[in-house]
Each structure stands twice: as structure tokens, then as C-alpha cells.
Amino acid sequence: MNEELTGQIKDLQTEKASLQFENSQLAGGIQNLQLKLQILPESHQEHIAQLQRRSPAVETHRLEMKKKLLSVCRNVNTYSRFTASTRRWLKISAKNWKESLPSIRRRFLPVWKELRKAGGQFCPLRESSGS
Question: Which secondary-structure segment (H or E) carries 48?
């Protein structure tokens, strides 16, 4: 029984030493975590201060880009209206010319023929194949 107790005492001493080592490691880990916990709010405050310092510059840039975008949109709208107006004017002009071309040809064809009979010396233009 004495030997049994001696063996148990040795086992308990070994376990005690192991637990003390583990306890010291845990205590070191706790200290590290406490340091991190102290540093974290400071780091967080620094990060917030940095973001707050950058915020006005970012906001200024955003407002400048918004103004430029509005200006570009106005220009696009202006050019779009101008293009549509010009397109309508060109269609109307082309239609008017197409409608008036036969009338113009009827009026000037006799003059043209007279000039050709006279030798064509006064008309440097050539008659197109369509007339």
C-alpha cells in the first residue's frame, strides 16, 4: 500500500507540474490577449480618425464628379436634340429637293438644249446620264 501511495504521489506531482506548466502558458496567453484588448480600441480610433480625415476629400471628389456628370448629361441632351433637329431638317430638305428637281429640270432643259445647239461654249457642265 505504501508503494501504491508513492506511485500515486509521483503521478500527482507529475500532473501538478504539467498543470503548472499549462497554467503558466495560459497566463501568458491571457496577458497577450489583454494587451491586444488594450491596443485594439486605440487602433480602432486611429482607423476611424484616418477615415474621417479622408472623408472630406472623398466627398469633394464625389461632388466634382457629380457636377461633371450633370454637365456631360446636359451636353449629351443638347447634342441629341441638335442631331434630331438636324436630321429632321435634312429629311425635309432632301424631300423638297427631290420634289423640286423635276420642275427645275423642266425649266432648264430647254435652255440647256439651246446652249448645246449653239455649240455648248457657254456651259462647262456636262449633262448627266439621267436627264
Answer: helix 2-117
Instruction: Supply the pLDDT for residue 120.
Output: 55
Q: How far apart are CA 16 and CA 112, in angstroms?
A: 127
* 67-122 pLDDT, tens digit each: 999 999 999 999 999 999 999 999 999 999 998 988 888 888 888 888 888 875 65
Residue 1's CB: how many other CB atoms inside 10 A? 5
Q: Are 125 and 112 in contact (CB under 8 A)?
A: no
Nearest Cα to Cα of residue 127 among 33, 5, 113, 82: 113
Residues 57 and 51: their CA atoms lie apart, in Å, by 10
pTM: 0.41
Q: Which residues of 23-54 are buried (b: 16+ CB within 10 A; e: fewer)?
A: eeeeeeeeeeeeeeeeeeeeeeeeeeeeeeee
